[in-house]
From TrEMBL:
Coiled coil: none annotated. This is Diphthamide synthase domain-containing protein. Residues 3-185 form the Diphthamide synthase domain. InterPro entries: Diphthami_syn_dom, Rossmann-like_a/b/a_fold. It comes from the Bacteria.
Length: 191
């Protein structure tokens, strides 16, 4: 069993697609953390109800981990470890990180200490390999949250598509995939 840390956005979906392509034989589950009082996935600003619809569409079990408001790291790790300990035969934890080495190193360290190996299926992939997946699959990606300083440039609800990508490539302060938290995305499955 491999568990994908599922944010509900494009990076998690890309990690899912690459992982499924590379390891079609491995069973998968999704794991999402959410703010318990609001029912919202932090940073992504996506309701847990939408995450449940995504999991149902993918026909995967969802492990939903409630967190307190403004959750400190220690509590986050404790809650995630408790949720993982209830699962059987976990082989790998799968993440949609693209190129932030400090985030990857942190994940590898803390989850290795818990006894888990991490996989990063989209790590340092070319944006030219990633974007076609989002364009050719029956999904729509839209901006779900924008850091305040970038709100004049990006709007919640705006499609994350090729036109937006072209605009972002000309803005030196914004990572085209939002890796530094400039913006977050929401995956919507087309019917």
């Amino acid at each position: 069993m491999d568990i994908i840390f599922w944010s509900g956005g494009k990076d998690a979906y890309l990690a899912f697609e690459y992982h499924r392509r590379n390891h079609p034989e491995r069973p998968l589950q999704l794991l999402t953390t959410y703010e318990e009082q609001s029912g919202i996935v932090p940073h992504q600003n996506i309701p847990l109800s939408h995450i449940r619809k995504q999991a149902a569409h993918l026909k995967l079990e969802l492990i939903a981990v409630p967190l307190p408001p403004e959750c400190p790291n220690e509590t986050y790790l404790q809650k995630v470890e408790e949720a993982l300990s209830k699962q059987q035969d976990i082989n790998h934890l799968v993440f949609g990180d693209w190129h932030l080495q400090d985030i990857r190193a942190w994940r590898e360290k803390v989850f290795r200490n818990m006894g888990y190996d991490c996989l990063f299926p989209i790590w340092e992939k070319s944006i030219h390999d990633l974007l076609p997946i989002l364009q050719l699959k029956p999904v729509r990606i839209e901006i779900s949250a924008v850091k305040e300083e970038y709100q004049p440039l990006l709007k919640v609800g705006e499609p994350f598509d090729q036109a937006l990508m072209l605009q972002l490539q000309h803005l030196p302060d914004i990572d085209p995939m939002g890796e530094n938290g400039e913006f977050h995305t929401k995956l919507i499955f087309k019917k």
